[in-house]
Amino acid sequence: MNKKSLLQYLTKLWLSIRIPLIAIAVGFLVGGVIITITGKNPLTTISGMIRGGFLTDKAIASTLNRSTPIIFAGLAAALAWGSGYPSLGAQGQMIIGALTAAIIAATFPGPAWLGVLLAILGAMIVGMLYSLLGAFITANFHAYLLIVTLMMNYIADYSAKYLTTYIFRDPNAADNLAVQTAKIENAILPRILSNYVVHYGFVIAVIAVIAVNFMMKHTSFGYKARMNGLNPSFAEYGGVESKMTMYKMLMISGALAGLGGAVEVLGSKFRYIDAMITSPGFSWSGVVASIMSNYSAVGTFVSSIFLAGIAIGGSSIEVSMGVASEITTIIEGVITMLITAQFLIQHSKKKRLRKVVDQK
Amino acid sequence: MTISWEYFSALVSSTFRMCTPILLCGLASAVCAKAKIFNIAMEGCMLLSAFFGIVANYYSGGNVFLSVCAGVISSVLTSALLAVFIIKLKASPVIAGMAVNTTAGGITVFLMYIFFGTKGLFQDPSLKGLTKITPFFASTFPKMAQLFSGLTWIDYFSWIAAVCIYIFLYKTVAGFHLRAVGINLEAARSLGTDVEKYQFITLTLSGILCGLAGITLSMGSVTLFIQNISSGKGYIALTAAQLGGYHPLGVLAASLFFGVCQAIGNFLQNTSIKTQLSAMIPYIATLIAMILSYIVAKRQSEKKIQRSLQKEKIQ
């Protein structure tokens, strides 16, 4: 009996990861073709990419380090998109969360642990409020949430640029051109192992994954939100208050994104640096991770680590083989297109239908 | 600060130039919306076209015609690919469109590194921009002509395109079929319209408009390519289409508004206001315009209801 349930579990797991795996394979194939066209050896390049992202202990540590903000952005996206509200606002929320955390942690005079706590809380509140503003505009003025959040991302980015350049600029910067805030001295998230870059922010990310998983699968609020994501009119008919769900979900989503920005500052960069969120594209990677796993929290966690790994691998081959690291973005794009295209699902459905017809 | 004619005319001509990419993409979005396709990939199409325009320009030694062709073709091919994914493979238009946008950002930088060995900005003296057209009345009314200084044929074409698309949508049979698809897909299908074919052609051809928009970015008032040169104009165009009620002439009015905002933003860079703040103006204006248009529309519909209620009372 036990053996059978294990088998059932494994088949279920296989069915849920089959399509992402095929998409990843095709993504690498397309990446390989592009590398071949540019006159490099695709096999050595892609194996170099995988080695640089996953196969040494240092690589795994930097992959986990990079995956931390992506996991938060992914959870934020999984909550918002999975309940039917496609928001791209995680980027703006991360930016203002990161800036808030950097300012609080650098100026707080008390003990370090309290500084970290306050910085994280501040970032979560700011992210939550910024997300709430977007939700408010969307709900009351019949605007597209997608466009509202995109515009708010640009506004957050330019505001952060302004504040870092003119108000909170690092007075001790060696380089005059560096747009960054002062270095945080004490209030930081320490490394888990002193030799590796991965820090306690990753532990917070794991806790967040467990909490979100619990909320979505074992609470009535999560159930309502998921129903709303699957079929809004049915959910409304069943008594789900769509507007309230949207406000609550987007607030939680914004708080998670703000937390992601804070953790990146407190554990990895130790200050807010201009474009530290936008340039690596954490927010979009998070959206891709949540789409790859069909908005499940655990799946988002695994996909985020994978995406972080190919990003780290991508930057390692840029140095060693002269292939621009943007190949990662291209592979990511191909994977997203294939997963959203559903033709793999349709294909397997057709196969199943044919089987049924044959049996009859 | 005194406002001289020179200053004013520079602002007006800058408004026209800033308006063009938003207008072209807004028209693309409006036509797609009429055929019930949510097209968000204008940003990516524009970026690819801007890039491949410059690549063709560089390798053909400044052949503007070839550059325009290269840019438009890249944009059309991307739109066709997107159409296959959205219409044939039933992909989510939002996700597929955003994937196109981010991938376009990646591809342009990736190829820029290969072709030009840089990742930020590419500029070369051998590059040639679009020819500027001096208005025919320049010799008789030189002051009036200043309002249209520095405009290229694509700028003029964008206005003609708005009118042509209006005529196509509202005065031709094919345009009528297209709008029927948008109003009621099933009804149109039951009348024998090949809905998928109409949608596919609309989305693919909207690539031409985005392609021309991209060309104006990299070869219009300046001739260079910068990483992410489209900077959210595709998304602003989406709002312009929405504000214009998906009507070509409405889109023209909305794009002029965004053009003014961009021009003012650019002009404020020369004053004491910091660049980071003035660069925000178009995005804030977009949000405010969305909110205001909803309030105005709501008030109008309330007035209409009141009026019809009064009529009923009289009767």
Query: What spatial form of chain A do the alpha-carbon principal axes imply?
Result: globular
Task: Name the pair of protein chains with the most residues at their interface, and give those residue counts.
Answer: A-B, 43 and 40 residues
Which value, in Å, is the CA radius of gyration of chain A?
22 Å
What is the arithmetic mean of pLDDT of chain A?
89
What is the number of strand segments of chain A? 0
Largest sheet of chain B: 2 strands, antiparallel
* Order of secondary-structure elements of chain A: HHHHHHHHHHHHHH
Low-confidence segments of chain A, ≥5 residues, pLDDT <50?
Answer: none
Q: What is the level-2 CATH architecture name of chain B?
A: Orthogonal Bundle
Shape of chain B: globular
The CATH topology of chain B is ABC transporter involved in vitamin B12 uptake, BtuC
CATH C-level name of chain A: Mainly Alpha
Number of helices of chain A: 14
The major beta sheet of chain A can be summarized as:
none
The string of secondary-structure elements of chain B, in order, is HHHHEHHHHHEHHHH
Mean pLDDT of chain B: 89
Cα(first) to Cα(last) distance of chain B is: 59 Å
* CATH C-level category of chain B: Mainly Alpha
Task: Give the helix/strand class of chain A.
Answer: mainly alpha
**Helical proportion of chain A?**
over 70%
What's the quick description here?
The complex is a heterodimer of chains A (360) and B (315). With 360 residues, chain A is mainly α. In chain A, 77% of the residues lie in helices and 0% in strands.
What this model shows, in words?
Chain A is mainly α and 360 residues long. Chain A has a single domain, classed as Orthogonal Bundle (ABC transporter involved in vitamin B12 uptake, BtuC). Chain A is 77% helix and 0% strand. The longest helix of chain A has 36 residues, at 2-37. By secondary structure, chain B is mainly alpha-helical. Chain B has a single domain, classed as ABC transporter involved in vitamin B12 uptake, BtuC. Chain B has 13 helices and two strands, in the order H-H-H-H-E-H-H-H-H-H-E-H-H-H-H. A two-stranded antiparallel sheet of chain B has the order 1-2. In chain B, helix 3 runs antiparallel to helix 4 (93-116). Chain B is globular, with a radius of gyration of 21 Å. Chain A binds chain B through residues 34, 38, 86, 88, 137, 141-144, 146-148, 150-152, 154-155, 158-159, 161-162, 165-166, 281, 284, 287, 291, 324, 326-330, 332-334, 336-337, 340-343, 346, and chain B through 40, 85, 89-92, 94-96, 98-100, 102-103, 105-107, 109-110, 113-114, 119, 232, 235, 238-239, 242, 274, 276-277, 279-280, 283-284, 286-287, 290-291, 294-295.
